[in-house]
Structures are given as C-alpha cells and as structure tokens.
Amino acid sequence: MSSEKVLSSASASASAPLASPHAELCRGINGLDKVVLRDPRGSSAEVYLYGAHVTSWKNDHGEELLFVSSKAIFKPPKAIRGGIPICFPQFSNIGSLEQHGFARNRLWTIDADPPPFSTTSSSKTFVDLILKPSEEDMKIWAHSFEFRLRVALGPGGDLLLTSRIRNTSVDGKPFSFTFAYHTYFSVSDISEVRVEGLETLDYLDNLQNRERFTEQGDAITFESEVDKIYLSTPTKIAILDHEKKRTFVLRKDGLPDAVVWNPWDKKAKAMVDFGDEEYKHMLCVEAAAVEKPITLKAGEEWKGRQELSAVPSSYCSGQLDPQKVLHGS
C-alpha cells in the first residue's frame, strides 16, 4: 500500500513498544496507525489501532481470507466495513448505545504491560492492545473497565483473538454487556457456501423481530438475506467454500452464541460503505454472547476467545481436526 510507512517508536502515537519481534507499527489508509503481524512461515495479519480492528488475514500463499469492502471508510468516527469489528459493550442496536457499541470506533493503544495471557498457542507473533473508557464514554456508558485484546498468528497460520474485559469499578458497581467478533469471511460466491455445526439449533431471527425458531436444514445455505443469532452453539463451526475448496474453522471459548449475517442485494445497495454486488463475496459468522448478557462484579474479568483456521475443504466439520490438517499429522 503506497500510504504505508514504518513508524519509529519515538514518532508512534501508539507510544508503547511492540513485544513481538514479528510485529511492526505502520501507517495505514488515511494515515491511521496499524500493526502488521508476519509469521516466519508466510502468513500475516493487519490490525488497526482504530477499533482494534483486524482488516487482513492472509495465509502462507498470500491469499486474503477476510473480506473488507472496497468502499470501506477508514475515517473516524465511521467503523471500518469488513474484517473483524469488535462489538462491545453491546451487540445490535437494542439499548441506548450506538449500534454494536463503541469499541469499534475508538482509538486503542498498544498495551505495554499486559498481565500474562494463559493460552495454548505457542505464537510469538502477536500484538496486545488496550481500551479504557474516556470521560465521554463514561457519559454514555457509566462503567469503568479495561478491555485487553491479543491478536496473534499461530504457527499453522491460524488467527487468534483473545479478549479480556475487567470491571475496574472502585464503587463496587457491576455491569452487563453483550459482545461479538463480527468476522467477515471472504468467500468465492455466497451461493457456493454452506455452514456446518449449527443444524437443529434454536435461533433468534433479526428479520422477524428476534422471534425464536429451530434450524431445520442439514447445513445452512444462502439464497436470500439472513440475520440470525444461533443459541448455545458448539465450540466449533465450519464454513465450507466449494468453489475455493477451502473450509474456515471457527473455534470459540466463552462465547455461547453465533451470529450469521449476509445483507443480500437490497441492503447492500442501501449501505454507502458497501459495494452493490459485494454481498456475493462475504459471509459474517460471528462468535458472540448476545442472548444472555455477561455480568461482571467489581474486580471480575471475563475472557472470550476466537480461533480461525483455513484448511482444505475435502474435510467436513464432523471429522475436522484443523491442527492435524495444518501440521500434516
């Protein structure tokens, strides 16, 4: 990208040094700061400090795995359309806050001194970011918190996001929130995609006033607009792209729900930051906690984790072990 420029630590608005030797602070679109993660095996990811927003995840062949709209507006206060927006402290627009909360359009900082992350990954390619509420944030959501996010590339090219939200209230006040990793996957053609792992589950249909239904199909396929919140979902969901012969595997922890969204043609045309035909090349499948808000007492911390892998789609979700696939064992 022509606007990309490496920042010295002295000139970086992010201020804190990067702990990982495989992370680099750069200028991105419109001069916004971003961190580029590069795994020695060839995979990469990009994270904008604006929104702690992952805008790119590429495999070791350099293929882009996330969708970002060609019309995305990289200019605050507009959230970036595509990638992985963070929805906090609310998902959707139920309540007094702006839709999907404010974390996705705030400027995060690099976390210089994060508490130890207990993780099964041996990744040395990561960045730690932190968000604390400003005085303006406290006026619209009067709760004191620290939101720590680690974005990491695993040795097999998988992308890991670990969120830790702590109630830092000094007056003992609890708070509740809903949450989602609003992940936009890049797909060849939405009509060639199916989602496995959500069959027979109950869901809330946002297109029908959140009425509750039970999924009937053997797998989820797409022929029209969909906006559903699946409840009590398994820890693993597979998104199969027949044309690309690729399967995305979403593994999650601490996030019981899963949102599936595609705007289809009419809604796509109504969005200024989304191309008219781009709905054909994206699908949102989101690890989320929506139906039952998470409540934290003062001093308590919640952790929610999402791990994304891309594997050959001769495998189906019922027999899929991405670690075996990725490591050839």
From TrEMBL:
An example of a Pfam family matching this protein is: Aldose_epim
Which CDD domains does UniProt cross-reference here? D-hex-6-P-epi_like
* Keywords for the protein's UniProt record, in alphabetical order: Isomerase
Q: Which reaction does it catalyse?
A: alpha-D-glucose 6-phosphate = beta-D-glucose 6-phosphate
GO MF term set: carbohydrate binding; glucose-6-phosphate 1-epimerase activity
**One GO CC term on file:** cytoplasm
* Family, per entry: Belongs to the glucose-6-phosphate 1-epimerase family.
PANTHER family recorded: APOSPORY-ASSOCIATED PROTEIN C-RELATED (PTHR11122), GLUCOSE-6-PHOSPHATE 1-EPIMERASE (PTHR11122:SF13)
- What is the protein named? glucose-6-phosphate 1-epimerase
Gene this protein is translated from: LOC115968156
